[in-house]
Amino acid sequence: MSDRLDGRVAVVAGGAGGIGRAVCRRFVERGARVTVADVAADRTAQTAAECGAERAIGAPVDVVDPDSAARCVAATVERFGRVDYLAYCAGNNIKAPALELTLADWRSQLDIHLTGAFVFCQAVGRRLVAQGEGGRIVLLSSVAAWAPIPQRGAYSPSKAGLVSLAQVLSVEWAEHRINVNAVCPGVAKTPMTDLVYSRDPELKRIRRSRMPIPREVLPDEIADLVVFLCGAGSAYVNGAAIPIDGGFLNSGFMPERKLGDAAEAIHNGGA
Ligand SMILES: NC(=O)c1ccc[n+]([C@@H]2O[C@H](COP(=O)([O-])OP(=O)(O)OC[C@H]3O[C@@H](n4cnc5c(N)ncnc54)[C@H](O)[C@@H]3O)[C@@H](O)[C@H]2O)c1
Questions:
Q1: N or C: at which end does the chain have fewer Cβ atoms within 10 angstroms?
Q2: Is residue 155 flagged as an active site residue?
Q3: Is residue 210 a contact partner of residue 251, using CB atoms and an 8 Å limit?
């Protein structure tokens, strides 16, 4: 079975971020064309340029703006003639104790993660239904949907909401041959994670000691899963929330263990 996506077109919201960029690159490697949709205009243009002018356009959008998704779909159709996939990777991450989390910060996270996802699903979904050829939607959730992160009072509810959104749309849109799934990474190796760990090496040690596979997931590994969920091999996967966490969610009873460089290196596999 071919894993090529030739002739297909993807919209990647949050496409200029650490994970979104990897997703854009993977789509293009598999033969699809892509619209990089992100609020960061410079990184959006840069990501589109990396993918190649023939295969990608940049669409500076603010997912909080309710009109942005429809404009993004219109720009994609104008350039590529169609839309087949949505990967929703936009996000932010505000740290605050629940007692001090402001309503503005709560709303910002719910708006960017969940309401933005709904608005993009709706805009892309309308186009997919009009085209009549089905499609795929993948929402970037997190293991935080089930394993709440302290001081992320709005992040975990947003991510749980994305799982629920994927489930409800998967039921409602199956008749249109639109599959909707959520991907739930553990801690990913992104510049943000590197920065956090450089400030707090002990946090890195503690987290890894509780990971069955003691390393972070790579953006390229997440991109592989996202693109798989758009390919022929996943036609019967619908409404799933798939952890990509090295087994972290199942490690509740696993004792904290000491890891040396050697133990970690076994799992790094060139990572
Ligand atoms: N990095 C991790 O460890 C990790 C783990 C699990 C889940 N996730 C989730 O994966 C997704 C991508 O994470 P990442 O690590 O690539 O983060 P990132 O910060 O590198 O990327 C997020 C992107 O979203 C864009 N964005 C933010 N607000 C926007 C808005 N209003 N409109 C349009 N674009 C906007 C940002 O500009 C950025 O490019 C997020 O939803 C995140 O919660 C990340």
A1: N
A2: yes
A3: yes
Query: Does ligand 1 come within 6 angstroms of the Cβ of 188?
Result: yes
Atom of ligand 1 nearest to the CA of 43: 39
244 lines ligand 1 (CB under 6 A): no
112 is in which domain, residue-wise?
9-188+217-251
- 17: CA distance to ligand 1 center in Å? 6
140 lines ligand 1 (CB under 6 A): yes
Atom of ligand 1 nearest to the CA of 16: 39
Q: What is the token pair recorded at 33?
A: 């064309």
204 occurs within a structural domain: no
Q: Tell me how far apart the terminal alpha carbons of the chain are, to the nearest angstrom.
A: 28
The pLDDT profile of the chain, 271 residues, written as one tens digit per residue, is: 678 999 999 999 999 999 999 999 999 999 999 999 999 999 999 999 999 999 999 999 999 998 999 999 999 999 999 999 999 999 998 999 999 999 999 999 999 999 999 999 999 999 999 999 999 999 999 999 999 999 999 999 999 999 999 999 999 999 999 999 999 999 999 987 888 898 899 999 988 998 999 999 999 999 999 999 999 999 999 999 999 999 999 998 887 777 765 566 667 654 4
- CATH number of 79's domain: 3.40.50.720
